Each structure stands twice: as structure tokens, then as C-alpha cells.
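#dry-run=false #mode=assembly
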Amino acid sequence: MAILIDGKLTSEQIKTEIAARVAEIKAEGGKIPHLAAILVGNDGASQTYVGAKVKACEQVGFQSTLVRLDAAVSEAELLQVVEDINTNPEIDGLIVQLPLPKHISVQKVTDKIKPEKDVDGFTPTNVGRMTLGWPAYVAATPYGIVELLKRYKIETAGKHCVVIGRSHIVGSPMSILMARNEYPGNCTVTLTHSRTQNLPEITKTADILIVAIGKPEFVTAEMVKEGAVVIDVGIHRVDDASKKSGFRLLGDVKFDEVEAKASAITPVPGGVGPMTIASLLFNTLLAAERKIF
Ligand code: GUN
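#status=ok
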């Protein structure tokens, strides 16, 4: 049986550590970390995610501000809201929940966020700094995975790490982090994607397999080497009449059959997902304490 890499438990531990630091800051009369989130429109998943982020702020003793804007808000108005937060000394970290409505340029909005407050790690400055190995805000999902590998003491040096998916948010930064000359890293990395040929041949050689392809149960047992460490970034709601909620959650990995072969694996839910919020809180703490810039 594989070791279950418990992201829910680990994220709770990280939140406890952050809450302890907030208590110290309060005792020292320092500034309480303050996260601002901008949510545009009524996308259901985005509302759930932002709600969870605001709730997590409360849990650790941070201040939070949620700015809700109508889906019809103009790009110029949104840019002005970002600028107001950029210059507001009370606010340490800012996230703009994605996706944005089609009439708004994600690129323009991302580029408007002051890198010092970019706790999502999405701005060119932070992506560039992360790539160079400089102090940087690292995007929440890759950072959460790095933290899981560390806390579960997964050996990485010299291993073959295969990443499936090349998104700016997960696959691409993950590939850079796993190749870095530090722990966890020092892997030989193969970054694969939808156009990769002979994918199962490649994944079968992975000691560490990180799956962020966005397709439910895409990775099956035949694609996995015996003893591999498998990290599943996917999360999909599928209808299931036998559940009270009417749905169940699936990852990008066919969990039951892959678990039988892996040495360690993240479940869905309760794996990478909860770690992303812990990472965001950690970045916001770094921002409040001016640890990166
Ligand atoms: N949408 C999906 N993931 C994320 C994330 O990590 N940050 C933001 N701002 N939006 C997202």
C-alpha cells in the first residue's frame, strides 16, 4: 500500500504555524497580515475558492478584504481597483481570482499587480525571480507540492520527475522547481503536455509523477512505474446519484489502481487542493513581514 500524502492534515499544520506567528506579531504590536481578493462575476467555482481563501484568513487571524465586481465591469475599472489596492498601505497581499470575463485581459490585469503584493506569484517579476532561484512569491499550487514533498521527506535528487501539463500556474513552474539545485529538486525533469507522443512510455519511467492535465482519471496504472511517487493536481466534479451531494470529486489520476502501484500518492480531495490555500496564507505572511522584497 502506498503512503497517503495527506494535504488536508499538512495544510492544517501549516495554518497552525501561521496562526502562532500571527499571535507573536500581535504581541509585538506588529502589523496583522491583510489579504485582498478581487472576484469578478458569479462563477460558481471561483466563488467557492475565494470564499475558502477568506475563511482561511479568519482561521489564522489575518485581515481580509473581498472586493466583488460585476461581470460587466470594464477593464479600466478593474485596473483602477488593482491600483487602489497597490497603493493602500493597509493591504499586504492581493489576488485577482481567475478566470476573468472574456472582455478583460488577464495579461494586463496581472501586469498591473504590484510584485511586492503579488502573493499568487503570477506577475512576470515573481515568475522571473522564481526561475532565477531568487526570493520570490511562488504560485500556490507548485509551492504546496514542494511543501508536501519536503514534509513527507520524499527523496528527489537524481530522480526522474515527469510533469504532465504545461500551464503557467502549475506544470511549467513545477518543472522549474523540480530541476533546481536544492531540495526538493535536483531531478531530471520531463515536461509533457497534450501534444507529447508516447506519453505512457515516458510516464512509466517517472520516479515522481506530477499530474496537472485537467482530465478526470487520465493516469491509469499501466502509465505508472512500480514504487513511483504520484502527485495529483486535478479536481473534477462528476455526477453521482449515490452521493447525498449528487456529485463526487475525482482527480487526474485513477486513484484506486494507481495507489496499488505507487509508493506514495496524494488523494483527491484532501491532497494538493488544501495545500494551495496554505501556500497563499504563507505568501501573505511573507508579504506582511517584507520577507521577499
Ligand atoms: N484560479 C484558479 N487557481 C487560481 C489561483 O491560484 N489564483 C487565482 N487568483 N485564481 C485562480
